[in-house]
Design brief:
- With 280 residues, the chain is an alpha+beta fold.
- 53% of the residues lie in helices and 18% in strands.
- The protein has seven helices and eight strands, in the order ααβαβββαββααββα.
- Helix 1 packs antiparallel against helix 2.
- It is rod-shaped.
- The protein starts with a helix and ends with a helix.
């Protein structure tokens, strides 16, 4: 803090020239983070003692303190159960009444000492929600801040536990939501596969029915030739009937037959096995 005051004073003195002021600024480094204590000089040692007791205590409770510097302001936080409590210690803007002055603790001067306020802010935000809580502890004539540190620590742990419980409930709800979405996706996928299988079955039945009709047609064609007198015409139609039966066998999914020109057509065993495999 003394370094900052010296730097700012020299920068202010160099304000008569912009280039000279920029040169002075370049000679000094940026602020290192410090505890956010905003009290008058006559209470600074008291503020140090309060925060020293708080920091040393939480360090024995699997918690830790971290300092930072954000937007040209000192920041400090205490992390308890992965919940971060941002805190600062400052004075109130109003002096205690004369009636309260007589009851104030010996650590506070009657004429010039302002009550202290130790405040904590918990900001917890996730990708779709945010929670904020504030804790504030004030000096009172009957109970100075030093005597409230046990309550400060216990309230912080209660708040941290509350945030953890909310997180746990939120995680459970999120898991249920994801499980339901997974179940619906599975049902949709099963429906899609079943629709594909129905289409396969429909194609198999259509091919089988077409093959049956072609055979019936070939039988009727040969039967109609019994009364034919033109031998050449009759032999030609017999060949056509034979060709039709051959194509019917190729179309029939119950018959595994390979055509010289058309190749091999999938039979019912291959199609149904493919359908069952996709379903599984």
């Amino acid at each position: 803090m003394a370094y900052r005051k010296k730097r700012d004073k020299e920068v202010e003195r160099a304000g008569f020239s912009f280039s000279y002021q920029a040169k002075i600024k370049s000679q000094y480094k940026d602020n290192k983070p410090a505890l956010p204590i905003f009290v008058s000089a006559n209470q600074i040692k008291r503020a140090y003692r309060i925060l020293d007791a708080l920091i040393k205590t939480v360090s024995h409770l699997e918690s830790w303190v971290s300092l930072g510097h954000y937007d040209k302001k000192d920041t400090a936080s205490i992390t308890i159960m992965n919940v971060s409590f941002r805190f600062e210690l400052k004075e109130t803007e109003t002096k205690p009444t004369s009636k309260n002055k007589t009851k104030n603790s010996g650590a506070m001067e009657e004429d010039s000492v302002l009550p202290l306020i130790l405040s904590f802010t918990v900001n917890e935000s996730t990708w779709n929600r945010g929670n904020t809580e504030c804790l504030e502890f004030k000096d009172t004539p009957s109970e100075p801040l030093e005597e409230k540190l046990d309550r400060v620590i216990s309230d912080m742990f209660i708040a941290a536990n509350r945030f953890r419980a909310r997180d746990e409930l939120y995680d459970r709800e999120l898991e249920k939501k994801w499980a339901e979405e997974k179940r619906l996706r599975h049902l949709q996928e099963m429906k899609r596969r079943e629709e594909e299988n129905v289409k396969i079955l429909e194609r198999v039945v259509n091919d089988w029915d077409l093959a049956r009709k072609i055979r019936e047609f070939a039988d009727s064609l040969e039967k109609s030739l019994e009364e034919a007198h033109d031998k050449q015409w009759k032999e030609n139609l017999v060949e056509k009937a034979k060709w039709a039966r051959s194509k019917a066998d190729w179309l029939d999914p119950l018959v595994a037959k390979e055509d010289d020109l058309l190749g091999k057509k999938a039979n019912v065993a291959d199609l149904l096995e493919y359908s069952i495999t996709k379903t599984l």
